[in-house]
Amino acid sequence: MSVNVVDMILKKKAGGALSEEEIRAFARGAADGSIPDYQLAALLMAICFQGMDARETTQLTMEMMHSGGVVDLSAIDGVCVDKHSTGGVGDTTTLVLVPLAAACGAKVAKISGRGLGHTGGTLDKLESIPGCSVEKTQEEFIAQVQEIGCAVIGQTHDLCPADKALYALRDVTGTVNCVPLIASSIVSKKLASGAGAIVLDVKTGSGALMQTLDESIELAKAMVDIGAQAGKPIHALVTGMDQPLGTHVGNALEVKEAIDILAGRAGGDLLAVSLELGSRMLVAAGVAKDVEAGKAKMREALESGAGLNKLKEMIAAQGGDARVCDDLAYLPHAAYKIDVPAKVGGYVAKMDTTAIGYVAQDLGAGRKKKTDAIDPAVGLIMQKRIGERVEAGEALATLYLNKPELANDAIARMQDAIAISAEPVTPPTLVYAYVSPEGVVRA
Ligand code: URA
Ligand code: CA
Fold first, then answer.
1. Beta-carbon count within 10 A of 155 CB
2. pLDDT tens digits, residue range 180-203?
3. Ligand nearest to the CA of 75
4. Domains of the chain with CATH codes
5. 182 lines ligand 1 (CB under 6 A)
6. In the chain, what is the greatest distance between 2 CA atoms, to the nearest angstrom?
7. What count of other Cβ atoms lies within 10 Å of the Cβ of residue 7?
């Protein structure tokens, strides 16, 4: 029986649930182009208004997952764990926790993405290391994980073409921001990339896809539920994106911060969230009995230098210059360094993290169009966090740029993005909730 697309749109518009057959036709029609964009777009908008139930969301996920190839990691010994973040600013947890988790004995086969909008992408960060490649065949990928315990690469083949088509349409039709669509998009790709267990970092706050806590928890729950239905354990943390997570924003700058952390020279919120996520990966991989034991193991790997060594091995295995781990001078450096002064004194009260991400993008750290080139060296370093005291004229952040003519605009936008209050301010929460198949635990 063939499915009538107009009927499907009308049904969803009226609040009905799509049948199994209709969802299959929707995903296939998106993947092979047989349903025109205008009908897909209308259906996506109807889903945004009416939602999808758990059965529809899980089925859409599975159909999108099977719309292309599925990576087979069964040749790797043990449980392969993956971690995914819904996207943030200064969010380099991957480069901190992947080597630490691998140094603790977990196998991490990670397929990462590029920067999107105001958020950075791990592939772009890795490519800022001279020589480092994120392209591997599936055989090379598996061999690297088997040998050194970790690899971070781009997609090896056409994963989830249905999601690729739908995501591109959502991006230009105002239909990104919808829990079942985001959940199915993310989880379909994670399931297709072959991991045995998945830890998700769902961001919440001014730099996140979902800005309110309730929506972020709803998204985390939707993804954990799909995992339970699909027989893959998914655990999620809801963490704050009220300010950039690390202090460094920009590609080589974020690599530098990850190295600083692994070398024991830095810490802060980026390390704290990396330990929260990484310890859950260790539990999922069966190499730690609980979260506390996982954190202790990761701290040991940090203090012994095993994590930094693992990053060196990974960079070398991917063709990069591993000397960056011992000497940051081997990373690309921006020609100019300019401070953003606070206009008034007081306490840092609030940040528009999305706006800060866009400042870094406009300095050249991200792309406005898919075809834009990235300048690996540029970005910014935050000098203050929410709750800290700042004097008038003191630096809120430092811009790293190669085009000094961009400085004035960037300074003004940074000053607008960071609110200063006369009254003391409590720093924001870092971990808001933990969502597992057993339920939601709010911090
Ligand atoms: N990231 C994805 O991969 N998909 C979405 O829908 C949103 C963020
Ligand atoms: Ca296996």
1. 20
2. 999 999 999 999 999 999 999 999
3. 2
4. 5-51 (1.20.970.10), 80-328+431-442 (3.40.1030.10), 333-421 (3.90.1170.30)
5. yes
6. 70
7. 11
